[in-house]
Write a structure and sequence with these properties.
By secondary structure, the chain is of the alpha/beta class. It is 39% helix and 7% strand. Among the domains are: 9-78 and 352-377 and 386-468, Alpha-Beta Complex (Aspartate Aminotransferase, domain 1); 111-348, Type I PLP-dependent aspartate aminotransferase-like (Major domain) (Aspartate Aminotransferase, domain 2, 3-Layer(aba) Sandwich), CATH 3.40.640.10; 565-626, no CATH class; 743-807, Orthogonal Bundle (Arc Repressor Mutant, subunit A), CATH 1.10.10. Helix 9 links the parallel strand 7 and strand 8 (245-249). It starts with 8 loop residues before the first helix and ends with a helix. Pyridoxal 5'-phosphate binds at residues 136-137, 164-167, 220, 249, 252, 274, 304, 332.
Amino acid sequence: MAKHSNLPRFLRNFASEDKENDIRSRNFAKKLDAADDLAYLRNNFYVPKMGTLPNADPKLVNPNEDSIYLCGNSLGLLPKATKGYIDRQLEKWAQMGVFGHHSGELPWIDCDEYLHKGLQKIVGAEEDEIAAMNALTVNLHLLLTAFYTPTQKRFKILLESQAFPSDHYAIESQIRLKGFDPKTAMVCLKPREGEQTLRTEDILSYLDQDGDSISLVMFSGVQYYTGQLFEIEKITSFAQSKGCVVGWDLAHAFANVPLELHKWNVDFACWCSYKYGCASAGGLAGIFVHNRHKSDKRERMLGWWSHDSKTRFRMTNQLELADGAAGYRISNPPIMLVCAVMGFLKAIESTDMRQLREKSLKLTGYLEYLIDEHFSSADVTNAARKIQISLITPRDPEQRGCQLSLQFNCDIALIFEELVKRGCAVDKRYPNVIRVAPVHMYNSFEDCWRFVEALKESIQALTAMFNRNHRCPPWNKPEKPSGSCTPYSKHFPPLDGNKSEVPANPGWIRRNSEGQAYSDTLEKEFQELSVKEKSETSRKQPDSIPNNELQQKWQDLVSLIAERLPQGNAKVVLTRFAFHDNVPRKKKQFINFLRSSCHLHDNEIGESVWHTLQEELEKLKDEGTEVPSELFNRKKKCFYRRGRRNRRSANEEPQASNEAPETPPASTSPLPRLAVAGPRSKRQPKAQKFEEIEEKLKEKEKEKKEENSTKSEAPKCEKKSYGQMSPFGDEAAKDAAEPGFKWRRTIAEEMARNKGICGYHNLKNTVINCYRSTVLDYTTSEERLSRIFKKKFELFGLTVENRMVVIQKAFV
């Protein structure tokens, strides 16, 4: 028998009796099902087949096998009896019409009362304390309208910080309707730092301190996100001793855990029936109002069905309010929704909540054990995995329902997708939780075993994908994946340990499979480059630390920093990066990687995460951690096409050509027409040397200074990323938003208006590079612009003569 400190007692006892050696085997799960006294309940429900699930992969599953349905916390399965009830009522409607209200098997006028007996057993209520009506949030509003009666001294509502949005919005709106401010009247109690669930002592402590200002306490019976079961009786009793009214949202507690609402003296409660109640999507909800409030006439929202049923049809418009929960009803019950609840009650009529809870504890305990055995981070093998799983649901079985909330350190959309492919029905809750609920009415121990196996396969598939060096489809054909490309390329951009990350590609620049930009005139040259030329032009790596070791050190530091950081954008991003093999070490590539990997297109957040990372590196270095100096103050690398590799020397005169240089077609907006450059032989030759032009520029600048002429300066702006900028977009809008772009556009247009203005580049790429070069934003003089053109000769490709033309035009 497998040894484990968290082995549930029932598993230990069963294994010792059966002498099963491997508790983790499928055979052991089948034996547990064979010994289950409530296993027959599964036959009362329709279990979807693998082949009927919309996203199951037929290559990975058997279409005729039952699906792994562990999503009862979201929507329960269809009871087989429900179809019969609904069919009979439809037939009755067809045969009787309006007479069906008072005649037949189930008179519609009081059909909801047929549910009371079964509902009383589930929630622990007396006959007059419950009513089946409406939807959960509608009922919550009705009850809050009646029971939330704030005063100037006692006006607050206490709830958990991560309440279900519907509850949060309902409470917030009720506070406003009563004339108070949610900022002061809505108290959202948070767990302790580093914990996921609320402690009962913390709730009682807050009530003890500020109970005099609290009008209403409203918690969930079972917390939807973590699966925590609150101590309803203890919290209710203590809050009422402080003068508070106590209500409970039992959406995840109804038919999940035993309830004794009358015995616990709860003031009011409400629930839905489509989760563990298996009463269809949007099924009929219910309310509980304690008999202590049976005869009070507190103000509430009223309707026809609030009237006493004995005199309702006299139509006197003189309200005779029904006693108990019936006085909160508004309209007649929907018969089809009543049939859905009746089908569920029929499916479980042979048992009770005590027996169901006993099985639930075993099912969830068995699932918890398997998850711990296969994925616990305490195991050395599991701790080395890139994908880690932690359980945020309380370990104490008495503090949870049947749901387990699994927290992942990666994008849960990927995990969820892999599970669905393997026929698993679970649900995801952002940012990083997948909820799994083995329901005691229809799930089996074998379902739990099959889910864990599917989870193992999913993690193995994703881990293999993470470890591969991914390549995206060709940049110029992103819609046709090929080769080693996978559907996950959109989440993980192509990286290379010895190269910078390929930035996002604008549609108007073509790229080869290496991610390098090329034009039609240079395509063949890229293909014909020899190994010798590649080695000569490649950028040298630092001599101090080999690149692969430096990258591994960087990865380790990113993971360490992600663990140290508090909750926030930086922690979420760096935690996600922790399982990537090639996180860029440079700022620009890092932010591009953030956009493509996390789909986070806010550059300000990217800048913030980068600066946080650098600050943490400084702290680690101060604390004595070894941080290579290469990870600090790295030079910014401009990403541009290098152009022709075998360039002629600067002083070499070009060969004479008898052909006249080709002139670009005249146009008021020349940029869109600059698609292809002319042949190399038609390009403008250099006319003068660099030194002569520089002397002329200096003399001209000196003359202008003597004349005290005012020179126009380029407007300065904040440094921004223009990697995605296209010269064919809305120029006027970009000019208004970013002055630096207007300056670059002016220079680029002057280039376009002069024939043969490019040197070793074709004209199109010269203009594009000019648009994308933020270095031009800060040029304020002709001399500085000349130095930039000279220093960045590879980038702009301007001859000496053309430089002078552009400079003169730019400063006019």
